[in-house]
């Protein structure tokens, strides 16, 4: 199955509203565009790849601010499909391939499909630039970059909430499961920025 066929299948089986039909599917320089009577979706490769699975992002072809969380799909060589934006689907994907994924790739997948939209904290200076070093220094349980300790994974993300303030989340991962908790919220953007 090629990319165009994958796009048609993902939209037809998982995203079309009842009564809606696919009108066209075409490949372009910015991914595969799938159009129905009601919507347009764009499918592109996900930011993580594996040797045994094809991973795709499917997004409504709309501008939103903040951006919408993409739909995520993983398709194996036998045509099995897992929804990465669904907790059960991503847990199953992690159960099947988690130990072969780089720790940073696990963090990227969680951030992308369950972070809402969020930014992976590469190092503490990332957060210093967003909320200032004084605020960042006062956040307990902050960890960055991705750390791997005794088989578990911990990392932090930051996001902009609806009230235009910053929230910091910590993720604790024990494959195939994870927990996310908010460490700080309603933080102001760094003064002067």
Biggest sheet statistics: 6 strands, antiparallel
Radius of gyration: 18 Å
Number of contiguous helices: 5
Task: Note the overall shape.
Answer: globular
Percentage of β-strand residues: 35-45%
Q: Helix share of residues?
A: 25-40%
Q: Which class do the helix and strand fractions yield?
A: alpha+beta
| Number of separate structural domains | 2
The H/E string reads HEEEEEEHHEHHEEEE
Please report the distance between the alpha carbons of the first and last residues.
48 Å
Low-confidence runs of at least 5 consecutive residues? none
In the sheet with the most strands, the strands line up as 1-2-3-4-5-6
Q: Write down how many β-strands occur, each being a DSSP E stretch of 2 or more residues.
A: 11
Give the integer mean of the pLDDT values. 87
Please provide a written account of the structure:
There is one protein chain. This protein has a six-stranded antiparallel beta sheet with strand order 1-2-3-4-5-6, sandwiched between helices. The termini are far apart. The chain has helices at residues 3-15, 87-97, 103-114, 124-131, 133-137; strands at 22-28, 31-36, 40-45, 53-60, 71-76, 81-83, 119-120, 147-149, 152-160, 166-174, 177-187. It has two domains: 3-101, no CATH class; 119-187, no CATH class. The chain is of the alpha+beta class. Strand 3 (40-45) and strand 4 (53-60) form a beta hairpin. The chain has five helices and eleven strands.
